[in-house]
Amino acid sequence: MSEPLLHHFDASPFSEKVRLLLGYCGLQWGSVHIPRVMPKPCFTALTGGYRKTPALQLGRDVYCDTALIVRVIEQLSETTSLVPLDQAASVRAMEELGDRLFMAAIPILFRPEGRAVLVEQLGEEALARFQADRAELFSGGSVSRPDDQFSRAVWGPTLATLEAQLAPQPFVLGEHPTLADFSLYHPIWYVRNNPGVRAITEGYPAVMAWFARMQAFGHGSAREVSEAAAHEIAADCNHWQPLMGEFDDSAGMAAGDSIAVHAVDYGVDAVHGRLVHLSAETLTLERKASFEGREIGAVRVHFPRDGFAFTSFDT
């Protein structure tokens, strides 16, 4: 089995979701640190232009979007069930609530107390670059960058709801953790990771006890892997990962068609390639990758169907 390589940066909340899942599932993984803001030339050489963090690499296969990455991790763990069949609808609803809570977290970090910490950590110039990068990230998609009014309407009521749900049980849906817990953990981690605004998470004892239980899973066993080494691993790999599900003919496309794929919410940069597989839940394209004139070779880039649009084009 190819070692999973996580392309991430330390402060990325969605990367923290995946890191914690890797720890919970007991997987050994390679840690590939990428830049916090664009340009990310080594990273996008593999993804074909997809810029969101993180991505998961298995040999010459690259998986984009945490919705797909967590399901790949579940398959790699073999024994861990993150989405029990009798709780699948509840898990999906909690995933969406986690996305909403993440959006509410963003403006909180830029309140005066949070911004002061960011300035101390990054400096004014780097923070300005970060804000410009995130403004570009939210340009052109269906989701606008949230404001503080949204945060005030969502953050407190959501944590109060979680407090009531967690009071009688250790995890969101009962006695055992599911993907619902990891989906709700990382927005709270994002805020708690900034000492200037951490107090907004206090006052919810059941939530904080649950947070501590989640945090105790840790990040598992990771080794540092350079971006150049990740490219070499892709170039040296001589096999593909299994494809997921039966081919979906309803979209009117066939394997080999030239397609462009992009997220619809934010970070809508398109990835171009040749369609390899299209199932009810996933889409896979193949493209030639290179970096600074050095050929990496063919890579396959995988996306979830939900949240992504795709179109055919003539080469």
UniProtKB/TrEMBL annotation:
Q: Which GO MF terms does the UniProt record name? A: transferase activity
CDD domains in UniProt = GST_C_family, GST_N_family
Q: Where is the GST N-terminal domain?
A: 2-81
**InterPro entries per the UniProt record, alphabetical:** Glutathione-S-Trfase_C-like, Glutathione-S-Trfase_C_sf, Glutathione_S-Trfase_N, Thioredoxin-like_sf
Which residues are in the GST C-terminal domain? 84-237
State the SUPFAM superfamilies in the record.
Answer: GST C-terminal domain-like (SSF47616), Thioredoxin-like (SSF52833)
> What's the domain of life for this entry?
Bacteria
Mention any Pfam family matching this sequence.
GST_C_2
Sorted UniProt keywords: Transferase
Q: What is this protein called?
A: Glutathione S-transferase
- What is the scientific name of the source organism? Kushneria avicenniae
